[in-house]
Amino acid sequence: MSTSKLLRGTFILTVGVMLSRILGLIYVIPFYQLVGEQGGALYGYGYVPYQIFISLATGGLPLAVSKFVSKYNALEEYRIGYTLFRSGLRLMIITGVVSCLVLYTIAPWIAPFVIDERTNVNSIDDVVTVIRAVSFALIIVPVMSLIRGFFQGHESMGPTALSQVVEQIVRIAFLLIGCYIVLRVLQGSLVTAVSVATFAAFVGAIGGLAILLWYWWKRKPHLDNLLKRDRGQVALSLKEMYKELFFYAAPFVFVGLAMPLYQLVDQFTFNHAMANIGLGKISEHAYSVFNMWAQKIVIIPVTLATSFSLTLIPTITKAYVERDRKSLRKYLNQTFQVLMFLTLPAVAGMAVLAGPVYAAFYSYDPLGEQVLRWYAPTAILFALFSVTAAVLQGINQQRFSVVSLTLGLLVKLSLNTFLITKFATIGAILATMLGYFVSVAFNLWIIKKYTNYRYRFVIRRTIFMAMLTALMSVFAAIVQMLLKSVLHYHGGTAESIVIVAITALIGAAVYFFFSDRSGLLVSLFGNRFAFLQRRKEKKAM
């Protein structure tokens, strides 16, 4: 595969993923206006079990299949990848149907763990209905994941990127239109509307699958020609193929499960713990704020930071395999620095502007402001966990990702109820932070152990970035205070958007100005910001 084609394919796939995630973020604004906190909580009750089932059924499958197919295509053994694909399709159909039936069947068993009778908001039957509505998507998504991986293995990223975007567009359109019709036109119940919203995952999957089938029909002649050129010198049984495929996929499955499993712990413990301290009547409102609405905002800087940082993972893998310790240290330094450079100011800005940010997305809510301010720092841990797990994959120590995730989940599970009874909603956030902290610390220790990497330089740079972030936060706080005074701020959506936009722009300008003046920008991003250096030199002349 040529370098230009690799870069083009990576760019297409990255753009597709980013567009898909942006769409997945934007829709929550009108969705919130339609269903509110109660509907958001109910939607989360259905979606978290679905995410776990879909991760188990397909987690890591596109990457694993693409790696498998690409490997044997490079050997001109095209029929091996095609044989796995045909067998895998049958397996994914069976897996999808079985997963759907299992989730549909156990919904009445899951629901009582979620709902406490003292909450008096959503009922057990409501939760059962929503979980069953989303279960149908499990029939299609595993098949879609396999086809995406097969195309990626043939160095074709367009089908995956376009199908992801179309899947999101169809899902969101069906979700919003369906909810609007049920609630505003037919005057239906909130449970019916949220069931339509979760069933939208099935409809979106049909849209994504349709795109993939169209690509398959279009490229079938090319794939047939490849089979004619098959060398036929390697023979693998299906058992050997699946064993190799599982070896590739397993680490991605566990890393992908991290956030849904943390959310599942909250889903099973939060309402009961809140009811135990006399807060049962507001527990579902608090749950939706914490585990649905605020979480969507917190994920924004995580997506941005990890997208930039993970581009360096292939070079880390290459340096490790070649035992080039100097290059490995350099790439690790750059990976961690870029991550912290992008995440720290985003997290600080989110914490400073917590009230207006939450109001800009949804509506003003004192609890939403408090939760977002406390929840924002977890973005750093989310990003570090993703990147350190990817580094472990790069240095062929991915098995430790499973250990670190297990340790973190045990911390979350053991402390969640206790901390909620002490600090209410904030307690659930603290338990999440402690769990991820343990996982990240373990990952960092394993990286140090197997690469002999030392963190002193990165720690010094992180402290410097934290100082710049603190300086930015002071400017942002002052600007926010002035704008609130001028606008006579009362939590309105329009004025919140104005405050967030202006304060964020000024804060970012301050952060990048001092990063440039200190030489940090050029140090991290090299020639990408060389024009800034030339501009300073011209001024000096």
Mind explaining what this structure looks like?
The protein is mainly α and 541 residues long. It has a domain at 1-236. It has 21 helices and no strands. Helix 1 packs antiparallel against helix 10, helix 12 runs antiparallel to helix 15 and helix 15 (378-394) packs parallel to helix 17. The radius of gyration is 24 Å and the shape is globular. The two termini are 46 Å apart.
Number of helices: 21
Note the overall shape: globular
If you compute it from the alpha carbons, what radius of gyration comes out, rounded to the nearest whole angstrom? 24 Å
What series of H and E elements makes up the topology?
HHHHHHHHHHHHHHHHHHHHH
Sequence stretches where pLDDT stays below 50 over 5 or more residues? none
Strand count: 0
Q: Distance between the terminal alpha carbons, to the nearest Å?
A: 46 Å
Secondary-structure-derived class: mainly alpha
Helix content: over 70%
Tell me the β content.
under 5%
* Average pLDDT level: 86
Q: What is the makeup of the main sheet?
A: none
Task: Label this structure with key terms.
mainly alpha; 21 helices; globular; PG_synth_SpoVB; Poly_Biosynth_Transport; transmembrane helix; Cell division protein
Q: Care to give the gist of this entry?
A:
With about 550 residues, this protein is mainly alpha-helical. About 85% of the residues lie in helices and about 0% in strands. The chain is built from 21 helices and no strands.
